[in-house]
Write a structure and sequence with these properties.
7-stranded mixed sheet, alpha+beta, 12 strands, binds zinc ion, 3-stranded antiparallel sheet
C-alpha cells in the first residue's frame, strides 16, 4: 500500500528513470498534464529567461542534479520532451464522449491490417484515461512533428514540438502505468512514411465565409488553425484559446465574420482532439475577451 508520503519520491524516481533512458524531462503540474513552467505570455524575462523566453522543450533535462532539485520542490508529474528524446510516441486514445468513432487502438490495428503489417510490439504505457502510448525511436535524420488524426481517428503522434506524460505520473488520481517495458522499437518505415506525408487531416477545413477578408486575415486564420491542430494533448485547449484570441481583432475590423472564425476554430479544436463542447466554450470566451480589447486598426 502506497503511503501519501511516498508520492513525491515515486515521482522523482519516475523522472530519473526517464532521464536515465536519455529522455529529457520537465515538470508538469502536480496531478495534471500542463507544463508547470510559465508560458511565453507570462514570461517574467528574468532568470533563465533574461535573454528571452526559454520554452519547456529547451528546458527539459537529463541532468540528475537538476531533476532532483526540481522534484524535491513539489510532486510534479513528469513530462518527456519527445523531440529531443529522439522519440515518436503513438497516442491511441479512448473514444470521446458523445462520439461513435472507434477507439485509437482499434483504428491502429485496422491500419496495420490494411497495410499488411504486424502491430509493432514496443515500450507501451496505459494512460490515465485508459488509452495507450506506444514509444518508438525516431528515424535518423527525419524531424517528425506532432500529428492529430493523421494516422486515423483517435490516433495522435508526439514528436518534435510535443511531449508525453511519463510512466509513474498520476493524472486525476490515475497512474500512467507501464504495460510493456521492452526497449522502444525503431519506428517502422511504413509508419514514418505515413507521418512524413504532407497531408492535411481527412476533413478539409471549412472555407471561411468572408465579408471583406483581407489576405492577412485569411493567412492568420489558416496559420492559427494549423497551430491548434498540431498542439499536444496538454496544450491544445490553451492553444485554441490563444489562437482564437489573436483572430478576434479581424472580426472587430470587419475582415472576418464571427461565425466564420468560430466555425474554423471549432474544426481545428475538434481535429486536435477536444470535444465539441470544450471547443465552443473556449472559442466563445476567447473571442469575447479579444473583442472587448480590440483597438482600431490604425492604433497598431
Ligand atoms: Zn520565460
Amino acid at each position: 500500500m502506497t503511503q501519501p508520503d511516498d508520492k513525491p519520491r515515486a515521482l522523482l524516481a519516475a523522472a530519473l528513470a526517464a532521464a536515465e533512458r536519455g529522455w529529457p524531462v520537465f515538470p508538469l503540474r502536480p496531478g495534471g498534464k500542463p507544463p508547470a513552467l510559465h508560458g511565453e505570455a507570462r514570461c517574467p524575462r528574468t532568470g533563465i529567461c533574461a535573454r528571452g523566453h526559454v520554452k519547456w522543450q529547451e528546458r527539459a533535462t537529463t541532468d540528475p542534479a537538476r531533476i532532483t532539485a526540481c522534484w524535491q520542490a513539489a510532486p510534479f508529474n513528469v513530462g518527456v520532451a519527445t523531440g529531443p528524446a529522439g522519440l515518436v510516441v503513438i497516442d491511441l486514445d479512448v473514444t470521446k464522449d458523445e462520439s461513435d468513432a472507434p477507439a485509437g487502438a482499434a483504428t491502429f490495428q485496422a491500419l496495420c491490417e490494411r497495410t499488411g503489417q504486424p502491430v509493432p510490439a514496443t515500450f507501451t504505457l496505459r494512460t490515465a484515461s485508459g488509452g495507450e502510448h506506444r514509444y518508438f525511436t525516431a528515424p535518423d535524420g527525419l524531424r517528425l512533428s506532432n500529428t492529430a488524426g493523421k494516422l486515423g481517428e483517435n490516433i495522435d503522434t508526439r514528436a518534435w514540438g510535443g511531449y508525453v506524460v511519463a510512466a509513474g505520473s498520476i493524472v486525476h488520481g490515475r497512474a500512467y502505468a507501464l504495460t510493456d517495458d521492452r526497449e522502444p522499437a525503431p519506428l517502422p518505415g511504413w509508419l514514418a512514411a505515413l507521418l512524413r506525408q504532407d497531408t492535411r487531416p481527412a476533413a478539409a477545413p471549412p472555407a471561411p465565409v468572408v465579408r471583406s477578408a483581407s489576405r492577412a486575415a485569411l493567412a492568420a486564420l489558416e496559420r492559427e488553425q494549423r497551430v491548434v491542430v498540431a498542439a499536444s494533448e496538454g496544450e491544445r485547449n490553451h492553444a485554441l484559446n490563444l489562437s482564437a484570441f489573436k483572430l478576434g481583432r479581424f472580426i472587430a475590423w470587419g475582415d472576418l465574420t464571427r461565425d466564420a472564425v468560430e466555425e474554423a476554430f471549432q474544426w481545428a479544436g475538434e481535429s486536435a482532439g477536444l470535444t465539441a463542447a470544450e471547443c465552443r466554450a473556449t472559442i466563445r470566451s476567447a473571442l469575447d475577451a479579444s473583442l472587448r480589447k480590440a483597438r482600431p486598426r490604425e492604433a497598431l
